[in-house]
Amino acid sequence: MTGLRSLLWGRGVSALGDGLWFTIWALYFTRIAGLPPVTVGAGLAVASAVGMVAAVPLGALADRAGARPVLVALTLVRAVAMAGYLAVDGTWSFLAVTIPFTALATGGTAVRTALITGLVTEPAERVRVLARQRVAQHVGYAAGAGLGALVLTADTRWAYTVAIAGNAVSFLVLAGATLLVPAPARTARPPGRPGTRVVLGDRPYLAVAGATAVLSLCWAMLSAGLPLWLSGWTRLPLGLGGIVVVLSSVGIAVFQVPFARFARTVGQAARTAVVSGVVLAASCVLFATTAGGSGAGAVAVVVLAAVLHVVGELGYVAAAWGLSVRLMREDAKGAYQGVTEAATATVQMVAPGVFTLAVGGLGGPGWLLVAAVFLAAVAPVPALTRWAVRTRQPAEPASSR
Q: I need a surface site. Which of 41, 59, 192, 199 has the fewest CB within 10 A?
């Protein structure tokens, strides 16, 4: 579908801007804008909290007004906010820009998923298209990170200014690409409670979303857990962490679409979530065995653990999509996807702290503790999924179980 290809290209361009921005933002705020690190951290935490609260209402707004116009509006606001970073000169201007820019990201992801699921009606194909979007996102992100490295090398105000302006333009490109997407057919909404109240009252869906969201801890394994582990508990080179990140990015780009086949039905998605949790737990155990390690043997174990991490992450993402698009109500896509994104954002807020305390503070036992969390999270997923299927109206066909 031409419209979907346009959206995927637009997402790739905006992801390039994301990779560029997330490579440079810390130094821009502290070195160029002159903000104290505490102010930056507190502002980002507030903005993330606002984003979690706003995700479901924004998704519900997309259900009422249409996912395409809402997504365009959110993207344009983020473009303006990004450009506004050039004028930040203190705490209040920083908050005025950061809250809309960061808070709308979570809701924007939910609305984009609602738009895709509105354009693609077959559940298995929905997961495949979402996987293609993630591939485009990671390719763009990697390219943007490379550009960010050049900006950091220059380390001058003009370089940061060009980067921020370029990121703002990338959002404009995404907004334009979204406008090329045909408006999906609107699903008739039955009378009764609005989508926000419906999804917040859907306990089976909330339980499934909450349990699977715990697996998103895997994203902080490499960004927070592994660097702390390599520097504090092993004698391995710190550069190994960078190699692992590259390995992860390549694995996601190559295998995310094929992994979509493991979430074609709701039953498959639930089983994939369980396998993902087990594999991620095994990755944690392998990391723990390299305590005090050095040399080629320990490097090989870290690389093997990284491979398992990639497999677990691929499975988790596919399973989360499969469960969310199979179990959501078609007349409240945005609200349901908002809940999924809010649950994930909640875990992501605490994930760096979890790995700092567990791995940075406890070492090997900390990895084992995280492994136990993964296992505990996925253990009830099949039963919770069956509960959710029983409460769907109309019920899932037997072949999907």
A: 192
Task: Show which of 144, 179, 214 is a domain's final residue.
Answer: 179
Identify the three-state secondary structure at position 395: coil
Query: In this structure, are residues 103 and 54 in contact, taking their beta carbons and an 8 Å threshold?
Result: yes
pTM above 0.85, yes or no: yes
Say whether both 57 and 206 belong to one domain: no
For residue 105, what are the domain limits? 2-179
For residue 267, being part of any structural domain is answered with yes
Has residue 196 been placed in a domain? no
**Is the omega angle on the peptide bond into residue 394 within 30 degrees of 0, that is, cis?**
yes
Are residues 205 and 173 both part of a single domain? Answer: no
Per-residue confidence of the chain (401 residues) as pLDDT tens digits?
Answer: 557 889 999 999 999 999 899 889 988 998 899 999 889 889 988 999 999 999 999 999 999 999 999 999 999 999 999 999 999 989 999 999 999 999 999 999 999 999 999 999 888 899 999 999 999 998 998 899 889 989 988 989 999 999 999 999 999 999 999 999 988 877 666 555 667 888 999 999 999 999 999 999 999 998 889 999 999 999 999 889 888 988 898 899 999 999 999 999 999 999 999 999 999 999 999 999 999 989 999 999 999 999 999 999 999 999 999 999 999 998 899 999 999 999 999 999 999 999 999 999 999 999 999 999 999 999 999 999 999 999 985 434 433 44
297 residue type, one letter: G
List C-alpha distances in Å: 189 to 63, 198, 329.
Answer: 9, 12, 10
* Structural domain contains residue 195: no
